[in-house]
Design goal:
about 120 residues, mainly alpha, Arc Repressor Mutant, subunit A, 3-stranded antiparallel sheet, about 50% helix, globular
Length: about 120
């Protein structure tokens, strides 16, 4: 279990952010929730390669950290939607910037790291 974020020293704020957002899927899940609420099945279909177990686990962690809210509608069959809280929505600009940086990195530097692009020197 991770260290309690509230107890991390002030100089560890990036570490605190990574404790909440780290991993392969959390920011991707949040990115799919920025347009609006999604049902579990919609998220599962949109996230190519994620298992049902991993999606459930990541959604529970995001919910526990106050970034996602799970709403259960009392109908038959039961309907469950996931949406962002205000804290989750506050990450939209950051996620957009990371997406842009990821594109730039992939297009400009990723090949260099694998030795497939010629050096500038």
């Amino acid at each position: 279990m991770r260290e309690n974020v509230e107890e991390m020293p002030d100089h560890c704020t990036i570490e605190a952010a990574m404790a909440v957002l780290g991993g392969k899927w959390k920011l991707v899940i949040l990115n799919h929730l920025f347009p609006g609420p999604q049902r579990f099945g919609e998220l599962k279909r949109a996230l190519n390669g994620i298992t049902q177990r991993m999606l459930t686990r990541q959604l529970r962690e995001l919910e526990a950290d106050g970034l996602v809210v799970r709403t259960i509608y009392r109908e038959v069959p039961p309907k469950v939607e996931y949406s962002l809280t205000e804290a989750g929505r506050s990450l939209e600009d950051i996620a957009y910037q990371l997406d842009n940086w990821g594109r730039w990195y992939r297009d400009n530097l990723a090949g260099d790291q694998q030795g497939t692009r010629p050096s500038d020197g």
